Amino acid sequence: MALPKYYGFYGPFLKMIKDGQVHDIKEIRQGIVQMLNLTNEDITDRLPSGKQSVFDNRIGWAKTYLKKAGLVDNPLRGRYILTEEGKKALSDADIIDDNYLKRYKSFREFTSSEEIITNTTETVNKSPEEILEDSFKTLNDSLAQDLMTEIMKLSPTDFEHLVVKLLLKMGYGSGIDADALVTQASNDGGIDGIIKEDKLGFSSIYIQAKQWDPARTVDRPAIDTFIGALTRNHANKGLFITTASFSSGAKTAADATNVVLVDGKQLTRLMIAHNLGVSVEHIYELKKIDSDFFEDGI
What we know:
Elements: H1 10-16, E1 23-24, H2 25-35, H3 40-44, H4 54-69, E2 72-76, E3 79-82, H5 84-92, H6 98-101, H7 105-114, H8 121-124, H9 128-151, H10 156-169, E4 180-182, E5 193-196, E6 204-210, E7 217-218, H11 220-232, E8 238-242, E9 245-246, H12 248-255, E10 259-262, H13 264-273, H14 291-295
Parallel strand pairs: 6-8, 7-9, 8-10
Antiparallel strand pairs: 1-3, 2-3, 4-5, 5-6
């Protein structure tokens, strides 16, 4: 089945603790998985950031909203118990969703401050973190497109310098230009740049940088030619980085050697991640209660 929205877990969560006993959150999660016949894929699919599963995120917001409405209580860390209002909800309500929880003032006050409950289906269907994650992904996707537009305006030589700067930003070499070089535009022997693999310079990575149409596909012959250039230079490791994409044949050729492929999408993602060609406009911090701080004594 499709993974329920966060409010779709209200009923299952309450049913898991309907006996009135205190239950551990891990036990509740496991019970819900069995109750709804969720698959491993259902519970392991992650938010765009990759830091948390969508399942855990929605369960987390379900218990938060149920607690704010007064349907569950949290007597101990990570443990939950059904309240009298929770018992009434299970016995009286056909559907327990946000509209049902809005009858409770505490829930209305909590959600109105977050602006989560609106008249738009898309917003109501998602938890606050999902909305933030989706917005972040949308903004980054748009930034990546703009970044590629700027990259394609560079000269081929400037593109090669861009690739070397990115590798330096990523920690290759010792972070200084002396540990990387861009070869001459002519007679480069099929090698566009060289950078030390580590700060001590035990080995080097040979680079092929191709600023090609993003709609183009790089096929196997281009990779075979690069592998040949590595062999002539007695190089063990190579990086083929391009603004285009790679065919399955190109990937197969690279997999059989010490050649790493980076396509246009990955290039822009790496530039964003390492703040190359972009600047930080805002930083938002998402914080939570430090339970250890309060439990260990002040």
